[in-house]
């Protein structure tokens, strides 16, 4: 479990990049928190720098879009999903649970 930030520091519509290996992006999509691998599966771009619309994030490089709930691409040029990770909040601190640690890689 990795502490990410205070909940108040991740307002709705924003994302934060966690410098793990590989990096992970944590999103606040209208009050729901999601975490996915931060690197687009199409090319090397940070999804935390993309555009968030509902539960979808659009890659800033070639506009591939990913569903934050599943990690699956919703349009080309991305064809491969990104991993999803569990996010919890404890004492107003956002925590990231790496999928590899829990054996739940998506």
Automatic annotation (TrEMBL):
Q: Which keywords does the record carry?
A: 2Fe-2S, Dioxygenase, Iron, Iron-sulfur, Metal-binding, Oxidoreductase
Q: Which residue ranges does the record assign to the Rieske domain?
A: 2-96
> What GO molecular function annotations does the UniProt record carry, in alphabetical order?
2 iron, 2 sulfur cluster binding; dioxygenase activity; metal ion binding; monooxygenase activity; oxidoreductase activity, acting on paired donors, with incorporation or reduction of molecular oxygen
Q: What PROSITE patterns does the record tag this protein with?
A: RIESKE
The answer to whether keyword Heme applies is no
Source species, domain of life: Bacteria
This chain's protein is named Bifunctional 3-phenylpropionate/cinnamic acid dioxygenase ferredoxin subunit
Pfam families assigned: Rieske
